[in-house]
Design a protein that fits this description.
Layout lengths: L5 E9 L3 H11 L8 E9 L7 H8 L5 E6 L5 H14 L4 E5 L3 E3 L3 H12 L3 E3 L2 E4 L27 E5 L1 H4 L15 H11 L4 E3 L5 E4 L7 H20 L4 H29 L2 H21 L9
Parallel strand pairs: 1-2, 1-4, 2-3, 6-9, 7-10
Antiparallel strand pairs: 4-8, 5-10, 6-8
């Protein structure tokens, strides 16, 4: 008996990045499609002025599978992702894949995701996101995944993930709009999925590449990224723990981060090793972010 074909919705949320969206969609159009899959592309533009529409039309005119463009007028990353969920279900998707508009997939990205899902009977499959700093060939870049295929990831991000639609239908999961402008909505979504008993696995070969612009290569951005990420960690921890547990947990982490930052800074001064300076910045940013989170000082990085 022939295997029943699965509908796969490859979803992209975008906001005022038309050139990156064009690159992303063009690469999606070149991925290898498993014979038992029916792929479709769903783009949700979070810009009410439809700044991504022209790029969508340009990139998808030569793509063989169906592509759809929607506008979500309610601003925020959670609102955009929830619209992607809604439209995927409207198109009867069996699996939903998320990729960011500043990313592009390896040619066998979907193939690897589906093979891993079948092998481990997984509900959620996550994969590595490899930073791209130059115009390197998509299929000739190293896989620096720290996890092996089949491992259970500690957290799952939405930048490279494929999951069964049952997370939205049977589990009634959606992205919490409280994280609309802070980020962290993906960790919150998939942490709840795991708590419900869904099987989460890693696919080291399901590679996605992320375009890193010049402004994100600075020490300032490095600090800001880990600072805001630490705030989000505290916010998420607060949802499942009492006040005493939250403060006890993060005060210990703050002390550890500060000590580690000082050690790395001293090593940098002695060796001038730039990686030690970056490590010191990351640790210090995390410590300050944890403290801000404890004090309910929230930074809405996506507003």
């Amino acid at each position: 008996m022939a295997e029943e074909k699965k509908i796969i919705a490859v979803c992209v949320a975008t906001f005022k990045r038309p050139e990156l969206l064009n690159n992303c969609l063009s690469a999606i159009g070149q991925i290898t499609i498993p014979g038992y899959c029916i792929p479709l592309i769903i783009v949700v533009d979070n810009d009410s002025e439809k700044s991504g529409r022209a790029s969508f039309k340009k990139a998808t005119k030569n793509i063989e599978f169906e592509s759809y463009y929607y506008v979500e007028p309610n601003r925020g990353i959670s609102s955009a992702r929830n619209r992607l969920l809604k439209e995927s279900l409207n198109h009867h998707a069996d699996f939903i894949g998320f990729i960011d508009d500043d990313e592009f997939p390896h040619s066998d990205w979907l193939m690897q995701h589906m093979q891993t899902s079948k092998k481990y009977n997984a509900d959620v499959v996550a994969g590595p996101v490899v930073p791209v700093f130059s115009n390197q060939p998509i299929n000739k870049m190293p896989n620096n995944s720290k996890l092996n295929t089949g491992d259970t990831p500690r957290h799952v991000a939405a930048g490279n993930v494929l999951f069964r639609s049952k997370l939205a239908t049977d589990n009634n999961l959606c992205f919490n709009t409280a994280y609309n402008f802070t980020g962290g909505e993906d960790f919150h979504f998939f942490d709840r999925s795991y708590s419900l008993g869904n099987v989460h696995v890693w696919s080291a070969e399901a590679i996605i590449y992320e375009t890193i612009p010049e402004e994100r290569r600075t020490k300032k951005y490095l600090f800001f990224r880990h600072f805001t990420g630490a705030i989000n960690n505290v916010l998420q921890y607060k949802t499942n723990n009492n006040t005493f547990s939250v403060w006890f947990h993060f005060i210990i982490k703050i002390i550890g981060k500060i000590f580690s930052a000082l050690v790395s800074a001293i090593i940098f001064l002695l060796t001038l090793n730039n990686s030690k300076l970056e490590k010191s910045i990351i640790k210090l940013a995390s410590a300050i972010g944890y403290l801000c989170g404890l004090l309910n000082i929230i930074v809405e990085r996506y507003r």
